Each structure stands twice: as C-alpha cells, then as structure tokens.
Amino acid sequence: MKARLLLIALAAIGLAGLARAESVAVDFQLDPITGLSTDGSSPAGTVGHWITPNTFYGSSKAIHHGEDQSTSYRENSFGSERLAAGAVGDQPFGNFSRGVEQVAAGFPSAHVTIEPEHLRAESSRQQNADLAETYLDWQRAFTLDPNSSITLSGLMTFESSLPLAPAVHYSTWPNSLDSIANTAYLSLRDSSNASWGNGISIIGNILNQDPRDWQSPFLGRTAGPDDFAYSTDPQGHLSLTIFNRSNVSMFGSFEILFLSSVTEVPGIPEPSTWLAMLVGLAVLTWRYKPALRSSVLRSMMRETSP
User: Fold this and answer.
1) Which residue has the higher pLDDT, 252 or 106?
2) What is the pLDDT of residue 267?
3) Does residue 56 have a pLDDT over 60?
4) CB-count burial class (<10 Å; 0-12, 13-18, 19+) for 194
C-alpha cells in the first residue's frame, strides 16, 4: 500500500510539469508606405493619399480558473473613435497600448501595442485551463491615381513557447459587398493549438463607393483578374499590392487583423485532475471548459480562411 501511494505521489509530481508557463507574441514591422501622402494631396513621388484616419479597435482578455473553483474574467476593449488625436496619429498604425496585466502570480495576461509602422500582441498564461488572447483590427482608406498601384508590406515574426506552424493563406473575394468591388486576403497565421490562429491577415479592398460617405452612389467598378498581387518568403515578409488599372482615380483600403492567443489545449487535464483520477477521489470523466470567443473575430477568421 505504501509503495502504491509513493508511485501516485511521484506521478503527481511529474504531471505538475504540465502546468508550465506558455506565451505567444506576434510582431509586425511595416515597411514605410511612401506612395500615399497624409496631407490630402498627391505630391511628386506619390500615387495617392490617405482619405481617412487610422481606424482601429480591439480587445485584450484574460480568464483565470482558481483552485477554489472561482473564475476571474478581465477584458479591456478599445476603439480609435474614443481616443485623442495623438493616439490615432498620422502614419499607420497609430500610437496606443492596452492590455490586461498579470494581477497576481499564476494569472494570465494579454497586451497589444500600436505604434507608427509597428504592431505587437502578447499573450501568456501559467496553467492550461486559463485563457489569454488579444486581437486588433486596423483599417484605413485612400485614393489611388489612375494606372498605378500601392503596396502594404512588412515583416511578421513569432515568439512562442509553444510549437507553432504558421502557414500562408491567400484568396480573393469579388463583389463581397455592393460597396466593395474586390477583396484580397493574405494571411500568415498558425491555428494548430486550438486558438484563434496566432498571426496576421492583410486585407486589400477595391471600393465601389466613397468610404467617407456610405450614402454616396456606387461607382460601377467591377472585379478584375489582375486587381491584386502578393508575395511571401520563409523569413515572414509579406506584401499585398492593389492595382488601379483604370483611367480614373480609385478608392481603396487596407485592413489588418492581428491576433495572439493561448487557450486551453483539449485533452490535457491539469495535474490536480490527473491526481484525482489516479486516487479515485474525483469525477469519472473529465470535461474541459470551453474557451470564450469573440463572435466578431470568429466570423472574420472564417472570412479570411481560404
């Protein structure tokens, strides 16, 4: 009997290693977009200008399940429309930072940073049952001169204690809405760990309406086979180009979905649950708590999937 109890204790000690800190950080460094001016004109060397400010919204969330069966839920949401001009900024992407910090040992945390030409999102947790995630949606519209093009490009990097396998996805969606003639989606993201899909989606839109006035008439633009071009490389550099192949100015927009999360891995119980099963003092079956998701983000990720 003593030997059996000793084996159980040793097993519990070994399984305790499963509850280790896990963290994921995603980082995107934008290449300067010199082809679009910010002053409402198109000076020499440019092909158009931004016509809307940086627009972004997002959320950082952390959920902790305590040993006493309590649950701590913390979330910080934000939107650029409620921020001062200094946070919105002139150059992509803005100048703002928001998160939910680790309030005590063992608690998860999540944080997003928006800077000129730089985005970073970080999520971390100390135990498998917890959840930490952050997302950002940035977008901005522009005018593009006739027979010209504009490119959004940059370097995407991942820092993770988890094994990630980011993959490139590209697709187009002609006439997704009456106000949009064509849309291209370019993503570099990982979805192998039951998460939202850590990474980035770059979206390019050819607009069929003035984005500053959604009551304005449609412009009769139609999708073409050569509206977009993209490139990627093994180092994480991505680029998406929008072409105006007409003889008149065109409305367009870029959008970025930026995601970082660590969520519960189904099928891996916490060490305390393992021990309870070993000694027969707990439930006969083990159920994991479903991770909370944002329905908005779920629909976005479905739309950006090939």
Assistant:
1) 252
2) 41
3) yes
4) middle
Whole-number Å distance between alpha carbons of 231 and 152: 11
Token duo for residue 253: 């927009």
Top-confidence residue, 295 or 248:
248
Q: Reduced to 3 states, what is the DSSP secondary structure of residue 282?
A: coil
Structure tokens at 255: 């959008």
Give the distance from CA 17 to its chain's centroid. 30
Which pLDDT does position 21 carry in this prediction?
A: 83
User: Coil, strand or helix: which one is 235?
Assistant: coil
| 3 state SS of 164 | coil
CA dist 257 → 121, 159, 184, 218, 287 (Å):
11, 18, 13, 26, 32
The pLDDT assigned to 76 comes to 95
Report CA torsion sign: 158, 162, 163, 166: negative
pTM of the predicted protein model: 0.80
pLDDT of residue 264: 57
Sheet holding 148-160, edge to edge: 96-100, 109-115, 118-125, 22-30, 148-160, 237-244, 228-232
**CB of 211 closer than 8 Å to CB of 199:** no
Handedness of CA 157, 121, 33, 222 (dihedral sign): positive
Instruction: Write the pLDDT tens digit of every residue in 112-148.
Output: 999 999 999 999 999 988 999 999 999 999 999 999 9
Tokens 């979330």: give the residue: 75
Exposure of 61 by Cβ count < 10 A (0-12 exposed, 13-18 middle, 19+ buried)? buried
Taking the C-alpha atoms of residue 279 and residue 281, their distance in angstroms, rounded to an integer, is 6
**Short-list 30, 290, 24, 284, CA closest to 154:** 30
Q: List 206's β-bridge partners, or say none.
A: 182, 252
